[in-house]
């Protein structure tokens, strides 16, 4: 059993991870500004100010999952939040896992991340770039000794496309993976399954991985 704290545990990604984590018997804390519309039994919900609460949230967890989205007030501030999280986690010897974007993956080895190209739909361009900057920052300057991973969901992923529980997924590295028909998709439930599998049996230490069917 691990103590898992989910920043943004009431959101689309965070709530799926929280549900999977309690179902597997972990101790789960969700942190967000507001209480959830419908609580998941077994999850402990905390609300408040991130800057005030982060040190305690980090020091009281074995693993902190960042499931915040770079939108609204975090559109410009999320890179700083995750940089602070990395510092605190290194001091506390807490593992962190950041949920990022599909466009933070590369189309080919050594090619720039897709977020830095012109093919991202305009409505997602800022969010994609911020989450690419987060993995660049982790890769370049995560504190020595910090145990981190960064998980990118497939292209078709999100509250607009919750998908189904197939009980399966594949992982790739920094390069985007596609199924035999050329599509890239993952449901919220199966993405959460991949995150919990990574927490329980770490295989992506200090690295990025993609999750898709
Ligand atoms: N295909 C893709 O690449 C794809 C698609 C979707 C999402 N994503 C990525 O997945 C990650 C999560 O996105 P999501 O759509 O699951 O997010 P979401 O549903 O919008 O949830 C965001 C969560 O963060 C919390 N939050 C927001 N501002 C906060 C603050 N200042 N302090 C504390 N908590 C705060 C929200 O609760 P409160 O508002 O109550 O604070 C909520 O729990 C992001 O990195 C996003 O880019 C990728």
Mean pLDDT: 97
Shape: globular
CATH architecture, by name, is 3-Layer(aba) Sandwich
CATH C-level name: Alpha Beta
- Number of structurally distinct domains: 1
What is the strand tally?
8
H-E order = EHEEHEHEHEEHE
Q: Runs with pLDDT <50, length 5+?
A: none
Please give the share of residues in helix.
25-40%
Provide the gyration radius in Å: 16 Å
Strand order of the largest sheet: 3-2-1-4-5-6-8-7
Count of helical stretches: 5
What is the CATH topology? Answer: Rossmann fold
The amount of beta strand, in percent, is 15-25%
- Ligands, deduplicated: NADP nicotinamide-adenine-dinucleotide phosphate
Structural class, please?
A: alpha/beta
What about the largest sheet? 8 strands, mixed
* Superfamily (CATH H level) name: NAD(P)-binding Rossmann-like Domain
Task: Report how far the terminal alpha carbons are from each other.
Answer: 28 Å
Give an account of the 3D structure.
- The structure is a single chain.
- The protein is α/β, with parallel strands linked by helices and 213 residues long.
- It has one domain: NAD(P)-binding Rossmann-like Domain (Rossmann fold, 3-Layer(aba) Sandwich), CATH 3.40.50.720.
- Helix content is 35%, strand content 19%.
- It is built from 5 helices and 8 strands, in the order βαββαβαβαββαβ.
- An 8-stranded mixed beta sheet has the order 3-2-1-4-5-6-8-7, sandwiched between helices.
- α1 crosses α5 and α3 runs parallel beside α4.
- The model has no long low-confidence stretch (mean pLDDT 97).
- The site of NADP nicotinamide-adenine-dinucleotide phosphate has 26 residues, from α1 and α4.
